[in-house]
Amino acid sequence: MIVVTGAAGFIASCLVSRLNAANFNDVVVVDNFSVEKKLPNIQGKQLREYVDRNEFFDWLDKNHAQVEFIFHLGARTDTTEQDHAVLDLLNLNYSKQMWQACVRYQLPLVYASSAATYGDGMLGYSDTEDALFPLYRPLNPYGESKNDFDNWALAQEEKPYFWAGLKFFNVYGPNEYHKGRMASVIFHAFHQIQQSGSMTLFKSHHPDYTDGGQMRDFVYVKDVVDVCFFLMQHRKDSGIYNLGSGEARTFLDLALNTFNALGRTADIRFKDTPEDIRDKYQYFTQAEMGKLKSIGYSQPFTRLEDGIADYVQHYLLPGRYY
Q1: Has UniProt tagged this entry with the keyword DNA-binding (predicted)?
Q2: For the residues of 88-117, what is the DSSP string, one character each?
Q3: Model pLDDT, residue 178
Q4: Ligand-binding site membership of 74 (annotated)
């Protein structure tokens, strides 16, 4: 059996589809299944069992001998969350408990970290220097919770025989319908364009960037789950890895490609960045991807143009799930 936590969420549900496509059908899905808006993400998939996240560790105590691999992708992912107690419970302490269970039963583990750990990027976006990790200063409590767990994991003397933490950059793609404000800019652009024929981006409040010239490393969710699948098969070279496309692109690129995918003439407008996030806003992110490539991952990452076209035309327009 393969366990996937957060399985009704965005990235994890796409991973379940990727596993099913490779004929891994004994998938145990773990989540808070009372959040009904996420449930369409896992409908129609080949699944072995549903386990509530609060009951998972009891379940694992009884079934660990049948478990082959654990993907721990469940988390509180709202970057505007200010309740440290919630983040400590779901992102830090639950992950510690998962790690300790994987040590106890010698189970391989891949878990979700985040590029939010890098903060404003002043120390760069390199995943090769573990000594830098305690120096990062995330810009929000969500990033702090992910950085706290990365540092805790690195400090442990007892580790799973294989483990990998993945610092996700700006992931976009199908199955993010439920995420509301936290959905990708492409998702919001699509709906703005469909409703009004135009879309709005944040103005730049930084002298080095023009309006729409803010840059992010946008990575297609299908690439993300391909990396997860590779690590499940690889099972060596434990550590923390960046997971982006390796290429920063502007929000203007994103907007223009969304219009192109819809066959519409571009009409892009700008508004002030909300004050509650303005001082925490990242103007540039770009994953250094050499570490992942150095362990043998050789698949090319999807170009933004191609990823947006696939997402818009094959998923958003028909309302399909992956």
Answers
A1: no
A2: IIIIIIHHHHHHHHHHHHT--EEEEEEGGG
A3: 94
A4: yes
